Amino acid sequence: MTAPTKPSNNGPSDPTAVPASAASAPPGPPAVSVPPGPVAVSGVPATVAAGATVSASGAGVPASAASDERAASGVPLHAPVIDWFDEHARDLPWRRPEAGAWGVMVSEFMLQQTPVSRVLPVYEQWLARWPRPADLAAEAPGEAVRAWGRLGYPRRALRLHGAAAAITERHGGDVPADHAQLLALPGIGEYTAAAVASFAYGQRHAVLDTNVRRVFARAVTGAQYPPNATTAAERKLARALLPDDEASAARWAAASMELGALVCTAKNESCHRCPIAAQCAWRLAGKPAHDGPPRRGQTYAGTDRQVRGRLLAVLREAHGAVTQAALDHVWHEPVQRARALDGLVADGLVEPLADGMYRLPLS
């Protein structure tokens, strides 16, 4: 479910500012079908009513005017998207009722900038070891970093540990249902708070990840891609498109996210499989090419991120502290290696000890 800018080599300063909760599936393969009928999304009732409507017209109309027109009246979007979701949604563990709010929260942290295929095994191991927030809070933060493995952006592990500790201290070990209380947890931003409130508790919130933003950009505003960073106009549109009742709004949030992950993908979109292709403003306009700022790509090889990952791999595999010499073996360039290690220490991911020894953090 999930999407992202990052000011440092280890991910966004607000782990939820750049959601990626539904991490886009590789283009091409069809959605995994589930038995016909409603698909359980943790805590979200399956009964859905068609709601808000948008207009499909707008070719040649300025994007803002067309967006306002579509958000006000036209052809219903909710019913076809939710019906498609009922038939094609992936059977993911955090969507099952037994996942609960904690399972939803763990998945939302893990899915930021990380594909579902990589998250699945780590998620299952994590929930088996720490089925409740209190179980994680009782362990050292370094154990969360160790269990995070190679998901990337490991500060998310520290933030999830911090959230678990706060949930245990403030809420008796239960993930709060109140949106404001979720926002008050360490490491939780607007996206994650809305996602947990919606997916776990069936509440009415605009859940905007990269996949949802792309669906709305194409279907409503007629643009191939959304802006690089989420705008106030996107938030306003997302709120306008929400169904009025909570159950339908929560279902719509999950369905629109899945549509972006499986069909309305960033590349090689499958318009022939899209339930709202006939209403899509971008398609009706002839799929005009993106004319905004260049889309940011992410590189890995040779970056500080790669060096940090190699250093952390040594520390994760060790049963105790490791020497500076052991860390020096993982990267040939000393200046970059030292910079990466200093960054890990500054981020709280590595704890320096006396005599040039290092370990994962104990507190």
TrEMBL record:
Residues 26-37 have a biased composition (Pro residues). Residues 110-262 form the HhH-GPD domain. It comes from the Bacteria. It catalyses: Hydrolyzes free adenine bases from 7,8-dihydro-8-oxoguanine:adenine mismatched double-stranded DNA, leaving an apurinic site. Its EC number is 3.2.2.31. InterPro entries: DNA_glycosylase, Endonuclease-III-like_CS2, Endonuclease3_FeS-loop_motif, HhH-GPD_domain, HhH_base_excis_C, HhH_motif, MIG/MutY. It is an enzyme of class 3 (hydrolase). Residues 15-25 have a biased composition (Low complexity). Its cofactor is [4Fe-4S] cluster. CDD domains: ENDO3c. This is Adenine DNA glycosylase. Residues 1-37 are annotated as: Disordered. Keywords: 4Fe-4S, DNA damage, DNA repair, Glycosidase, Hydrolase, Iron, Iron-sulfur, Metal-binding. Residues 1-13 have a biased composition (Polar residues).
